[in-house]
Specification:
Helix 1 packs across helix 2 and helix 2 packs across helix 4. The protein has six helices and four strands; from the N terminus they run ββαααβαααβ. It has one domain. The protein is α+β, with helices and mostly antiparallel strands and 160 residues long. A four-stranded antiparallel beta sheet has the order 1-2-4-3. The two termini are 31 Å apart. It is a multi-pass membrane protein. Pfam families: RDD (PF06271).
């Protein structure tokens, strides 16, 4: 069941369709491929180089670096383009849930930070159950709390 959100700013603009849970999960699975590449180049390769020099980075710092690197990638892409490569492939776009416009930088940061615990819940099945059975629009918790949503087959959005 896909619902639509309407844009309160312009009656001439058509309502957009929220992306289905199945499509968003497929895009998330596909997202692991480019994310792996980003992590390999910007996180793993430098760690291997440092270890080769005899520098041992504490495990906590390694994970913090990965969190920050992926954060820069996702927040930048969501804020500037509204979609990652995987989202483009699956014809999905991240928008502000209230206006239907591009999300703010603040919303992108909140979404990224809250996506981590939400994704861990998805891995355990709780996050999927939340989206499938609890949330009226089948949105993940991190989107609901960030005030964003993912739409299907996005029209050309106006950038701020």
């Amino acid at each position: 069941m896909n619902t639509a959100i309407s844009h309160p700013t312009a009656a001439a603009r058509p309502a957009v369709e929220l992306a289905s849970l199945r499509r968003r999960l497929a895009a998330m699975l596909y997202e692991s491929l480019p994310t792996f590449g980003v992590g390999a180049v910007t996180w793993f390769a430098p760690l291997v180089f440092l270890h080769g020099l005899g520098v041992n980075v504490p495990g906590g710092l390694e994970w913090l670096a990965l969190f920050l690197i992926l954060g820069v990638y996702f927040v930048f892409v969501w804020h500037k383009l509204g979609q990652t490569l995987a989202m483009q492939t699956w014809r999905l776009q991240l928008v502000d849930a209230t206006t239907g416009r591009a999300p703010t930088l603040r919303q992108c940061i909140i979404r990224y930070v809250l996506a981590w615990p939400s994704l861990l819940l998805i891995v355990s099945g709780v996050g999927i159950l939340w989206a499938a059975y609890v949330d009226r629009d089948r949105q993940f918790v991190h989107d609901r709390l960030a005030g964003t949503c993912v739409i299907f087959d996005p029209p050309q959005l106006t950038r701020r």
